[in-house]
User: Fold this.
Amino acid sequence: MKDFIRIHERDNVVVALKELPAGREFDIKGKNASEIKVTAADNIPAGHKMAIHTIKKGEDVVKYGFRIGTAKEEIKAGQWVHVHNIKTSLGDLLDYDYQPISADIPILDDVKFMGYVRSDGSVGVRNEIWVIPTVGCVNSVAAALANAANKRAENSVDAVVAFPHPYGCSQMGDDQEHTRTILADLIRHPNAGGVLVLGLGCENSNIGELKKYLGDYDEKRIRFLVCQESEDEMADGAAILDELITLVKSDRRKPVSASKLTVGMKCGGSDGFSGITANPLVGKFSDLLIARGGTTILTEVPEMFGAETLLMNRCQNRELFEKTVKLVNDFKQYFKDNNQTIYENPSPGNKSGGISTLEDKSLGCTQKSGGSLVRGVLMYGEQVTAHGLNLLSAPGNDLVASTALAASGAQIVLFTTGRGTPFASPVPTVKIASNSALAGKKKNWIDFDAGTLAEDASLDEMGQKLFTYVIEVASGKKVCSEEAGFHDMAIFKQGVTL
Assistant:
């Protein structure tokens, strides 16, 4: 492995790929193949930054070719660059100019995966039965029904899964609307061959209300039970689930075009390697899928702050540009309305891994978007319709954002991480390690090792490997969290609780 990487020729820092010991001299290539000799003044941890020029107080610190903050004090060549001597340069609500750039992706030959074609034309990558509570009061009933049915359904369907949540009542306004929208999105999700919607009966988001959000649906595959109207909800629920198991177990996979695949993209527990390995790798995957007519969705808007213009200028037209401006500024206003600091980021784990400012984090995070044009901008809970790269309004929280991706139509989520996490989402969640040490240590969490990009592997080669792996997952290969039996969901709570 190389000692360090200088990501862009304009950068005045390098990123350590392994610990750089104080006192050691390093040769760093500059512009026009010139060399800069820098002696490390501090021990530089792996994933962290070292200055290669003197950066005066107030001057820009540059990484990825862009400013990631300004120096709080003079930083000499060879010194460690981190939160102690760099601060964010970001402002609050901003005005933006549309400066469109070309970002065409060449068309590639189609690839097939083996999916479940539903009656409405949508395609699932799993054939599961979902138990979805309308309100938190029936969470335990939902979980008990799913656990018991899972044993009865062994080898018949992929899984019977309950998705408990604490909402569905004591909500008002947009907060209540968002809960209903997300629940309706999941009820209609093609990864579920059958769904039992479990209500209490007296809640705000009762079954009668939710049906208004569903539109046309297959009455054989989406069933309802109101617990207050049942003498024995456990017996009645079990009977419905047994009927669904009998129906769903006859479904078979068929060859389906990759153009029918929608993949969500998310990162969490990022480190200094994330923007160098795992996130660019997901960006390469995104371009490969889009080149075959497929769709990707990028979310976690607060982690676009500081890199948003890179996405705005790739919008296909001015209308999408304006939607992206609103996407970003509305999220900043949400922070302000709740009297919170807009740039309260990165997290402690991010900082430990080498990320110093939100710009540093965002410029790495947006690498997941690849080089495609933005062809869709989605509000929270809105279903994806445009093929290609889409931006989705959701926070950075791992469970909330991943659930939002699934609700918008993602059949699979790619989740890059430098720290590791065992969580899942409503859909198969592929964990991609930014460093090989994590991939080796947490084999029960990590599905794909992007750390080899810090060594000799090429982005093109690894991009194709990841694309092939995702096609396998879409065709039925289980990811680690599925093998462990994990399925999680979380709704974005935004309003008053009564």
Remarks:
- The chain has three domains: 4-87, 128-250, 256-483.
- The chain is about 30% helix and 20% strand.
